Amino acid sequence: MQTLNSLTKAISNLSLFLLLILPGIVGKTQDSVVFKKIVYKLKITDQKGQVYKGFLARINDSAVFMNTEPILVQFKGVDQTYSRTFHYEDLGILRLQRKSSIGRGVWMGAIGGFLIGAIVAAVEGADPETDWFRLSLGDKIVGYGGLGAASGCIVGGIIGALAHKRFVIHGSREKFLEMRHKLGAQ
User: Fold this and answer.
1) Is 108 within a domain?
2) Which residue range(s) make up the domain with 13?
3) For the chain, how many helices (H) and strands (E)?
4) How many Cβ atoms are within 10 Å of 63's Cβ, its own excluded?
5) How far apart are CA 145 and CA 141, in angstroms?
6) Which of 28, 59, 159, 166 is the most interior residue, by most CB within 10 Å?
7) With the CA atoms of 177, 178, 183 and 186 taken in that order, what torsion angle do they form, in degrees rounded to the nearest 10?
8) Domain-located, residue 94
9) Do residues 173 and 94 both lie within one domain?
């Protein structure tokens, strides 16, 4: 019994720690997009209202380069042949979304939901033996964890679908350079 009480107290402390620390970490990581080895889907609306879809290939000091095939983003390097080049004067609105963001959101939500459900089950503990319908601690962890994982999948998928960066340029060099800076270009 004493072991169960110490386990419950440790899980409660861990839960409190996660609830206090994780929002700060998540908030800090969402400040800007940092290009590493990532592929971004790109949707450009030009000044005339035409819409173009593809993948972001490269950004230099005056243009955005789009490709029809997924490619890692580059800020510097040798010029290659891209399917389309957009100079900042022609840009209206840019929308960037990380490739596979929905799938990534689903599995991250599932893991997070399962962990939260398992922690809640562990804190609640097993049902007393006098109950007519008794669930053991393991049963509760599996059940609560499963419910948490299912709801986490849904929430993570929605967040993944909605996660994108939108930049309104409207032919302005200042706004283009500001966008470039926010994307991590030097």
Assistant:
1) no
2) 1-30
3) 4, 6
4) 16
5) 6
6) 59
7) 60
8) yes
9) yes
Q: At 164, list the tokens.
A: 């994108």
Regarding whether 90 and 8 lie in a shared domain, the answer is no
Residue at 13: amino acid letter: N
Q: What pTM did the predictor assign? A: 0.62
Residue 98: beta bridge partners?
40
**Could you read off the pLDDT of 88-144 as tens digits, one per residue?**
999 999 999 888 889 999 999 999 999 999 999 999 888 888 888 888 988 999 999
Q: Quick one: 9 and 46 in the same domain?
A: no
Model pLDDT for residues 35-90, shown as the tens digit of each residue: 457 788 999 999 999 999 999 888 888 888 888 888 777 666 545 666 788 999 99
- Walk across the sheet containing 51-59 and list its strands: 84-87, 63-67, 51-59, 40-46, 91-98, 165-168
Residues 174 and 92 in one domain: yes
Q: Are residues 26 and 60 in the same domain?
A: no
Burial class (CB in 10 A: 0-12, 13-18, 19+), 59: buried
The count of structural domains within the chain is: 2
